[in-house]
Amino acid sequence: MLSILRTIWMIFLHSFRKRDTVLYPEEKPYLPPRYRGRIVLTRDPDGAERCVACNLCSVACPVDCISVIKGEDESGRWYPDTFQINFSRCIYCGYCEEACPTYAIQLTPDFEMGEFDRQKMVYEKSDLTISGVGKRPGYNFYRVAGMAVGGKDKGEAENEAEPVDVKTLLP
What is the DSSP string of 26-51? Predict the structure, then answer.
């Protein structure tokens, strides 16, 4: 008898508590600041692609969901001719973002990617590339690293800084 009264009392108390359920489409759930969601490819401040098709992201991916095929333009710079991510396999671990030397791959807090057809979960380069610079607004890989292109040595191309001699950085 006591347990029945206790149960009724608990139900009464819970009926006046604030709901924990979020009415999803109308009300967005809280996402922590470091939430890892949809992967995007960003551009450098000049508007060019940041990705240099080095394949480090696909090597770092533990589930092998990233596929990159390298292309090379007339100046000798690499770019991803094909870049695919299979989001039905992706575990959003963030290793691809950490492995990227050019900050091209960045994870965003976007999580609304549900599909009924599994083939639509394979995102192409055009689906992944955004027009913005993402989390690193002033970073340009070629200005930092330099690259010998089309008869010009490192640091001699337009808008490139002289490369830093790493031996001068040693104590």
Answer: TSPPP--TT----EEE-B-TTSSB--
Alpha-carbon distance of 141 to 80, in angstroms, equals 15
Q: What is residue 148's predicted lDDT score, i.e. its pLDDT?
A: 67
Q: 85-95, pLDDT tens digit by residue?
A: 999 999 999 99
Distance between first and last Cα of the chain: 79
For 12-24, what is each residue's pLDDT tens digit? 999 988 888 888 8
Helix, strand, coil proportions of the chain in percent (round to 5)?
25, 15, 60
- Angle, CA 43 vertex, CA 148 and CA 152 arms, to 5°: 15
Distances (CA, A) of 122 to 4, 35, 83, 126, 148: 54, 21, 10, 11, 35
pTM: 0.73
Phi, psi of 77, deg, nearest 5 = -85, 140
Of 128, 150, 163, nearest in space to 50 by CA:
128
HSE toward the beta carbon, residue 40, CA cutoff 13 A: 17
